[in-house]
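Session log. Operator J.P. requested a structure for one protein chain; no other inputs attached. Running the standard single-chain path with token output.
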Amino acid sequence: MTRLKFHLSAVFAVILSVSCTSAPAPEASDTQAGSRGYHDEISEVFDPENVSEELYLSTKMEVQDFIKRLNQLIVDRDFEAWRAALSPELLEEFSSEEYLKHRSEQLARINRRIVLRSVEDYFNHVVVPARVNVGERVENVDIKFITMNRVQAFTLTTNRAGEEHQVRLFDLEKIEDLWTIIN
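Structure written below.
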């Protein structure tokens, strides 16, 4: 019996030592057909601080066009088009009973006795009045990259003291070549 235990222990030790050793991974070669090297992967990491001028300008123009269209559909009171511009998560947040109740309480504090019961009420009583006169400011919109497909859109405003500061308008994400409001 002790001999069997010794043999089982030896076999177990051999299996354990073989399974734990590994051969060094072959180095990837940039010249091998169909393979990608380490440096290729590093160069594909997106750095929002080092965006090319071309990407920055083209994205900024796309975002400005998106905001211009968004402002126009708000002026036109086109609820369905506005709703389509929201991410599913944001639409769900705006539709929640808790969010609508909170916004209704805020409206009551400014002497507007409106009770929001739906996201369409939110659009008509909050979004439209807040955004109806901002369409002319699109040229002042700038962007900051977060990821390759996510940007913050903001505008610069000057306060009474003459100091400029950024006002964030939207967090946007490009999904299937369409900009979507995510916050």
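Operator note: Residues 50 and 165 are 23 Å apart (CA to CA).
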